[in-house]
Structure formats: C-alpha cells, structure tokens
UniProtKB/TrEMBL annotation:
SUPFAM superfamilies per UniProt: Homeodomain-like
PANTHER family in the cross-refs: HTH-TYPE TRANSCRIPTIONAL REGULATOR RUTR, MYCOFACTOCIN BIOSYNTHESIS TRANSCRIPTIONAL REGULATOR MFTR-RELATED
Known DNA-binding region: 40-59
Gene3D superfamilies: Homeodomain-like (1.10.10.60), Tetracycline Repressor, domain 2 (1.10.357.10)
Signal sequence interval, chain numbering: none
Domain HTH tetR-type: 17-77
Source organism, top-level taxon: Bacteria
DNA-binding as UniProt keyword: yes
Protein name as it appears in the record: TetR family transcriptional regulator
Organism: Actinomadura parmotrematis
Keywords (A to Z) from UniProt: DNA-binding, Transcription, Transcription regulation
Length: 210
C-alpha cells in the first residue's frame, strides 16, 4: 500500500512540475512575441491549456512565470552552496557553487541551456521583469545568507559577514550574466571567473577593452 501511495505521489509531483514548466514556457513565448506589457495572465493560461485558477496556484504574476527557470537556478545554486566543504571561505564557497552549477551534467546551467541567454537579456531589458528578477534574486540571497551564516556559525541577522559575502557573489554572477547576455561569443564560465577575480582586484584597469 505504501509503495502504491508513493507511486501516486511521484506521479502527482511529476505532473505538477510538467504543468509549471508548460506555463513558464508559455509565458516566455508570449513575452518574446508581444512584450511583457501586452501579455495577460489569461493569455498564458490559454497558451498552456490550463485554467486561470491553475496559473494562480503556481505563480503570483506573469513576470514570475516568465522568470521561473531563473528562480529554479537560484535554488540549485543554493543547494550547491550548502554542499560546499566545511571551512571553505564564503566567497570561495559561492564561486565553487557556481562552478558546480554551470558544470552540472544533469541540470545544465545558463551556459549550456538553449534559450537562457535570450531569457536573461529579456529580464534585464524589460522593466517589469527586471523588478521581478530583483525580487526573486533577493529571496534567493536571503536563503544564501542563511546557508553561509550556518556554515560560519554566526547569526546572519547580527553579523554582516554572510550578507557581504553573498552580496558580492551574487553581484559578480549578475555582472557576468549581463555581459554574456549581450555578447553571443562570450563564455559565461570564464566571465564568472573574471567577475570573482575583480572582487579581489583593487587596481584600476588601464585598458578599457581588457
């Protein structure tokens, strides 16, 4: 009986993930076709062949649906951060988590996922999406701060170290992603490495093309 219940639960979970992914794809397709402002939640639900109520069970807004793949990526980055070796310095741990996420053979990172560059470019260029991305990113950073605080054994609400480390790491990732989104020939993994190197570099570049 327990095995039967487990199988049913597994199927329901898989169906829920498929439904969520279908709505996220529909939202992104419509945003690309029309622009976010011209897309209604009802349009997304119709494209995904679900009800308006079903959409609201999964997403709070059309922007959340468009950016859902990025939210899932932030979750994976945090999972990789929590799995880093004990004692590793926070910024190094964040970089290690990004490396693991970008190289994950099972869940490709942005650098190996079709359409990821276009999604990021859209997220940075559309004001409504940019605001939603900041909100999603802030929620992910709060989780990252809690993870780093636990690793350091400090209170993240009182000690600034976790928030500073996470803020620096997240800023480095987004800086790399902005450049990558605008330059098809760029290498995201290499840009991430350069962005983290810049955190420790106090010199001023003399060559603006370097």
């Amino acid at each position: 009986m327990s095995s039967e219940r487990s199988g049913t639960t597994g199927r329901r979970g898989r169906k829920a993930r498929e439904t969520r992914a279908a709505m996220a794809r529909a939202a992104l397709e419509l945003a690309r076709e029309r622009g976010v402002a011209a897309v209604a939640v009802e349009d997304v639900a119709e494209r995904a062949d679900v009800s308006r109520r079903t959409f609201s069970r999964y997403f709070g807004s059309k922007e959340d649906a468009v950016l859902d793949p990025l939210r899932a990526d932030f979750d994976r980055i945090n999972a990789a951060l929590a799995a880093r070796p004990p004692g590793e310095p926070p910024v190094a741990a964040y970089l290690g988590a990004l490396r693991a996420w970008l190289a994950d053979p099972d869940e490709p990172g942005w650098n190996r996922r079709e359409g990821a560059r276009e999604l990021l470019e859209l997220a940075f260029s559309e004001p409504a999406l940019a605001a939603a991305l900041r909100r999603i990113g802030t929620a992910a950073e709060e989780e990252s701060i809690a993870i780093v605080a636990a690793r350091l054994g400090v209170d993240g609400d009182r000690d600034p170290h976790p928030a500073v480390a996470v803020g620096a790491g997240a800023a480095a990732l987004l800086a790399a992603a902005r450049i990558w989104g605008r330059h098809p020939d760029a290498d995201l993994a290499a840009l991430v490495e350069r962005a983290f190197a810049a955190l420790a570099d106090t010199t001023t570049p003399t060559d603006p093309t370097a």
